Amino acid sequence: TYEYKGLLGVIYLGVKYEIYPCLIFLGIGATTDFGPLIANKKTMLLGAAAQIGIFAAFFGAILLGFNSFEAGSIGIIGGADGPTAILTTSTLADHLLPAISVAAYSYMALVPFIQPPIIRLLTTKKERLIKMEQLRSVSKTEKILFPIIVTLVVVLILPSCAPLIGMLMLGNLIKESGVVPNLLNAASNAILYIVTILLGVCVGATSYGPTFLALDTLKIILLGVIAFSCATAAGVLFGKIMCVATKGKINPMIGA
Questions:
Q1: What is the 3-state secondary structure (H, E, C) of 208-239?
Q2: Which positions ≥6 away from 185 have C-beta within 8 Å?
Q3: Structure pTM?
Q4: pLDDT tens digits, residue range 9-55?
Q5: Are 171 and 25 in contact, with CB atoms under 8 Å apart?
Q6: CB 95 within 8 Å of CB 117
Q7: Of residues 197, 199, 171, the one with CA closest to residue 185
């Protein structure tokens, strides 16, 4: 364990106390439109199916010699979400933070290269050309109630998710309320970008050579590929099932 002092030490407190991931989720919520999800609630099932990638990476990590806490931190890469991976890793296995952060953000950036081959392999051209029908319009009241209800339900079921889900939905509530445009602009732009920079600096500062340049890092990068690939495949395959069930009204590609 290393003690960081000075400016970097102060900045690193944002990671240590799980502040940065929550602030990033605030910005993500402020830039997210949940209208399509509210209008077509069945799409939640696609998101659930894609979580198979997390379990594939988790059990793969166990087989490669990682303990359950380390495997849980590696598996969350399959959630395709950098802040969640960082928060989980800083809680369960902080010594893997640099490797998991690099893997998570690298594969998020490489999604346009990872997903298309898998989609083409698992779908037909006819399925990919399906044009989905226009969704119903979602009222402003629904959009405002959605983040409030989701926060209450999720926090009651899983209190440990309160910081991330709460900030995500708070950001979305700021957006949908339409009464605080300056806060919305700050959360979705300045705060989001500044915190991302600070987070990157912290991850870089903890990338200690002998620890980072190790065999375990290569294993984590490999498992990250497996996590993303399995998540994409599971989402697309479940999309195919929904396509059949709806008689061709769902394009399986949205499962990705």
A1: CHHHHCCHHHHHHHHHHHHHHHHHHHHHHHHH
A2: none
A3: 0.80
A4: 888 888 878 888 899 899 999 999 998 888 888 888 888 888 888 89
A5: yes
A6: no
A7: 171
**Both ends of the chain: CA-CA distance in Å?**
38
Long-range Cβ pairs for the range 10-16 (8 Å, 24+): 11/198, 11/201, 11/202, 12/202, 12/205, 12/206, 14/195, 14/198, 14/199, 14/202, 15/86, 15/90, 15/97, 15/199, 15/202, 15/203, 16/90
Task: Please state the length of the chain.
Answer: 256
Tell me how many helices (H) and strands (E) the chain has: 16, 0
State the pLDDT confidence band at 191, using cuts at 50, 70 and 90.
Answer: very high
Asked whether the predicted pLDDT for residue 208 surpasses 80, the reply is no
CA atoms within 13 A on the CB side of 84: 19
Count of beta carbons in the 10 Å neighbourhood of residue 201? 16
DSSP 3-state of 200: helix
Q: Which residues contact 190 (CB under 8 A, 6 or more apart)?
A: none
